[in-house]
Amino acid sequence: MFEEASEVLENMLKWSFPLSLVLFLVLVCPLRAEAAHEFSVYRMQQYDLQGQTYGSRNAILNTEARTVDAEVLSRRCVMVRLADFSYEKYQKALRQSAGAVVIILPQNMSTMPQDIVQQFMELEPELLATETIVPVYFALEDEELLSIYTQTQISSSSQGSSSAAEVLLHTATANGFQMVTSGAQSKAVSDWAITSLEGRLTGAGGEDLPTIVLVAHYDSFGVAPWLSYGADSNGSGVAVLLELARLFSRLYSYKRTHAGYNLLFFLSGGGKFNYQGTKRWLEDNLDHTDSSLLQDNVAFVLCLDTLGNSDNLHLHVSKPPKEGSPQHALLKELETVAAHQHPDLKFSMVHKKINLADDTLAWEHERFGIRRLPAFTLSHLESHRSPARHSIMDMRSVSSLEGLSRNTKVIAEALARVIYNLTEKGVGGDLQIFTEQMQVQEDQLASLVDWLTAQPRAAQLLDKDSSIVNTLEYYLSRYLKDVKRHLVRADKRDPEFVFYDQLKQTMNAYRVKPAIFDLLLAVCIASYLGVLYLAVQFHVWF
Amino acid sequence: MTLFHFGNCFSLAYFPYFITYKCSGLSEYNAFWRCVQAGATYLFVQLCKMLFLATFFPTWEGGAGVYDFVGEFMKATVDLADLLGLHLVMSRNAGKGEYKIMVAAMGWATAELIMSRCIPLWVGARGIEFDWKYIQMSFDSNISLVHYIAMAAVVWMFTRYDLPKSFRLPVTILLGLCVYKGFLMELFVHVFLLGSWTALLVKAVLTGAISLCSLFLFVTLVHSN
Asked: Which residues cross the membrane (chain B) (predicted)?
């Protein structure tokens, strides 16, 4: 008898097995399996400048992801795409005490429409000025990140939807994502050295020659240090300075063209942080040494800042140059060259007094102006507050640098006319000095800018051993003499600048299921086991 | 993700074994230590198989996407050692047919559960990341239990001296299917590109078919005696 009974049992068991499996599948509807995704994220700036704190104060993150249109944002990681980003949404996330904000940027920024790029550029200083204790990260979009974002968006936006059964089914099957960063909490970097480089070309004809100083800061700034490439500001300035160094060192190598001016070239670091490099260099040269080119006869200091595109060129001064001074001579020569050789270029002088009550100085020449050295800054921007100077959108692919070689030529010609005193000797404004073998090399400029923008140049990332500093030093030493490094370290007791670390992290996105899902699964498994037990129990066969 | 999930998977994997042990009456026969001995034999057989495979079979050096049918077939043939091991266990146990089969199968399957499933579950199911493969693994262990019971039954039938002539062929076929089941499964997955849930379903159906046939043959054999 028990054989037939066992056969019946076996039948029942065997047929109910695949049936319960199918039932289970129908109930739970599993999604396509996706592994955890790992991607690099770049943190927003965090620094103290002259005692004032800026940027996001926190680096650790271990929260669930939501998109910005979800209702409950508190203690969640809010993910926003650049195209949907706006200041109101950011503030809304902060108001609801979100755990973190991750802004997803497209891989190729040039695909973004110009108005979105412009809008973001204008938002960057506001983002930095808003006091945030939540970590703000930027990530570059790839396929998996996009799919994570889409899935999060679907589950976030349907949270307020219809019936209880739907909500239950949805929460049971939804794929949540847990975002976890692997690093530690951010802390201040101690003893960071900002490096500046100087080099010179000595003039012909003995002692006491007047000195012309050419300055450009080589670091860049943006809302995220690892994403600040600074193509125009100030990659263009550095490229112009290096090309001028090459041209004038060639002129100075021939006895007949060796002029009676000393040329001092200075690549300053920490420029975006209120020109720390220049400040300390001036202090060391004027206060702490006995003899330096800066102490004696300085004709003028020309700072180069953002000379990439556009048909404008502005000479920013803190007080209008007096007649007969070398400054005035340069101003006149620039006007002459612009008028005769490049009529489409609009050149003008902009006068702005130094305002010592401001948090930060406007242009680099103001540092020199404070120490009573005649200085001005040449830039195509009209105002120092222009967002193009502090943006991560300032990339090679987005900023065009068409006017760069023309501007280099204008500056070179004007400088040559001052050094060789050509106007007084009656040379007309159309004579071009830098032609043929002495011509400004456009591909050299282009490759310099390409190299400069190939890696981020934020001041927090360039220590004294970085490859950029070393390469700049090597380049300068090919054309100039006496190439020296100058280090700036923040004062121990009252630091002018403090940088923080943990600026680049690896973020992991783990697929998680909500807690209800575990309970549901437990109930299903319990019922399956119960069926199994009952089936076996009623047909004990030994 | 989390201990709760691990608990779910573990109970899904382990409870059917527990139920089978309790309800098949093995506990009345104090069969626990015999099951443990069967488990030890399983370990020994697996060790021998691994040594054999490592020594005599070269690593496959073809392209990555090509499935080495012949090589995998040869490797599956080594699984005949499983049958030998089961036969060894059953011959050392005195008792009725069903008792021998159940003891051998329970011990064998439990040893396989502990050796090959516990550690992945412990390490994987407790992590943050959720993956369906842990539930699938637990289901798979259920299927293996049924598979080993069927396999033990077929081996027992094969070694019976009073097996009718007409049964020889079906029993041999079933024996072959049992041994090459893993190979067949991989073949199906590779050729038809089955998803993981579908593969599990196919495996369940295959095991169900094998065990049904073996049960039918077993019942007929016992009944005719």
From this structure: 101-123, 143-159, 171-194, 200-222
* Shortest Cα–Cα distance, B84 to chain A (Å): 26
Chain B residues in contact with A180 (beta carbon < 8 A): 128
Residue A526, amino acid: A
CB contact under 8 Å between A533 and B23, yes or no, is: yes
Question: Could you say which of B5, B128, B197 has the minimum Cβ distance to residue A25?
Answer: B197
- The DSSP secondary structure of A363-432, one letter per residue, reads STHHHHHHTT--EEEEES-S-TT-GGGG-TT--TTTS--TTHHHHHHHHHHHHHHHHTTTTTTT--TT--
Complex ipTM over 0.85: no
What's the average pLDDT block by block, 10 residues per block, for chain B (225 residues)?
Answer: 80 86 72 83 88 75 58 73 83 78 84 86 77 85 88 83 76 81 80 82 88 85 77
Please tell me which of the candidates B11, B25, B132 has its beta carbon nearest to residue A525.
B11
Alpha carbon distance B212, B206 (integer Å): 10
Q: Tokens for A249? A: 């060192």
Q: What separation in angstroms does the CA of A250 have from each of A207, A480, B181?
A: 22, 10, 82
Task: Give residue-wise pLDDT tens across range A216-251.
Answer: 999 998 888 898 888 888 889 999 999 999 999 998
CB-CB contact of A45 with A461 (8 Å): no
Interface of B with A (CB under 8 A): 1-2, 4-5, 7-8, 11-12, 15-16, 19-20, 23-26, 28, 98-99, 102, 127-133, 135, 139, 196-197, 200-201, 204-205, 208, 211-212, 215-216, 219, 222-223
CB contact (8 A) between residue A3 and residue B196: no
CB spacing of B23 vs A3 below 8 angstroms: no
Q: Do A25 and B4 touch (CB under 8 A)?
A: no
Rounded-to-integer distance, Cα A497 and Cα A221, Å:
15
A137 φ, ψ (degrees, to nearest 5): -120, 155
Tokens of A258: 């060796």
Alpha carbon distance A507, A39 (integer Å): 5
Q: How far is CA A11 from CA A127, A349, B150, in A?
A: 68, 97, 14
- Rounded-to-integer distance, Cα A28 and Cα B130, Å: 14
